[in-house]
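Form 7-S
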Amino acid sequence: MLKKLLGLCDILLIQEHWLSPQQFKDLSFNSAFLVHAVSGFSNKQLLSGRSFGGCAILWRANKFVKVEVLPVSSNRMYAIRICRNDCSLIIVNVYMPYECDDDAADEFSFQLLLLEGLINDNADSHIIVGGDFNVDFPRKWKHTDILLSFCDKLDSCAVDFHQSSEVDFTFNFNLERFSCIDHFLLSGIVWYFISEFSYLLYSFSQW
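Output:
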């Protein structure tokens, strides 16, 4: 699966890889791509219940020569800065908590606060935030309102609302329940460079 996806892109964001830090080498199977990742658990931690599986960013090495990993105090997101000439682009990969109780809402808000700090600290850069937000915009839940307020505050917008978007869903359960919980949030000027936004549907159980 990953081999197919890497053949279609220059940058790949992965959520829920379910790898410990010692296993990150399993993501480095394609020498054309560099990879950095964060795990939701330690090498020695015994998993119990429904934890969260970390995220990773892979990028094509010959396309993006000057890449810097940005520090983020979270194991739910990872960020890099790509520099070309006088242009700086920050790409953040996120895996946000599912809405289930007040603790999850607090965690959701806290992760957005960390993201806001990262964006404000790099105000001279364009921003793309992508990943699993566990928010379906038509579903008027608490996390939906929190995320929309965040976008308004930072003058960013989800690609879902772009006129070129052809995405109806990004997740389905047994082809019975459909939702769009994976999103890209863009800073102002990046929005105007979108020419197409679509969804590739794959069925797979392993890489």
